[in-house]
Amino acid sequence: MFNDCHPDIPHGPSVSAYDAPMAAAPPVTGAPAAPARTGLLVGFGLGAVIALCFGAYARVHDPSGESVVVLFFSGQIQLKVWLATVAFVLAVLQVLSAMWMYGKIDIGSGAPAWLGDAHKLMGTLAFLFTLPVAYHCLWSLGYTVDPTLDRVFVHSLFGCLFYGAFVSKVLVVRTENLPGWALPVAGAAVFTTLVVLWSTSSFWFFTTFDGAKF
Amino acid sequence: MNPLKTAVNVVQFFAAAAALAFVVLLFVNDPEKPAATGGGGAGGGVDGAAVFSQNCAGCHGADGSGISGPPLDDGIVVTNFPDIQDQIDVVTNGRGPMPSFGDRLSAEEIQAVVEYTRTL
Q1: For FRET with B64, which of A42, A66, A139, A206 sits at 20 to 30 Å CA-CA?
Q2: pTM for the predicted model, two decimal places
């Protein structure tokens, strides 16, 4: 998910999920071919490096503690929880659109031709909405390892993992000859980390404070 | 060209630019340095509420009721820090997840914001 695919399922030889048309191609079975192995290694490896870099920055950087931008919201946190919620909703829609394209949900006469582009658009927008949120978290708050602050610690950890998973997904989806498990795993990693992030921030905020106020 | 495909390309371009700006800003956007002080002491001329709103509300909430940082309202800080100097030391030097503000706020600003939190 996210900025990714035009997923034709399953993925055929020499066709990346990103560029492939909606028509189905034969699945790749057995061990992945060499380009896929390299692509997967680069994708998941670079994702791991990105996650580590985010964590390192958040730990080493002296948190500023300052607000960044509030726009028309009543405060910095309100802006963040709403932007994260928009990203979360877009991510849910993206998963549903992927399931539709993959034939996992049956809506009428199959996935329309425009669904792949809509899927990409939702993912890219979701990513855009997360950036101001992550910027304030990293620059202003930093990485919390205080064991008494479970929610904040989990949020910090998954915040770093999210962008690593995102980078992996963007790279993996462009890999040719993908094994059948690769794209669902990469997409699920992005979605799962975002769900944890949203649950430990926006959902917590909505249920702990004044509800859904702007 | 398919308008939806065009929209995807435009948004992806902005996403790439925003991601680049995101990384650059993480490193070039230094927190504001403290203004020159006249020797510290009471934060008489400084608006403690404004300093709180700009520097503390992000974690402690606009009304001090706490968000990712602990609540400061209902006299909690006065209870936890009977001596105001202890609270000033925490704000200045940080403690645990609480960042230090000694290099970002002047002594007057810290004094003012600490006094303000003791009224919440």
Answers
A1: A139
A2: 0.70
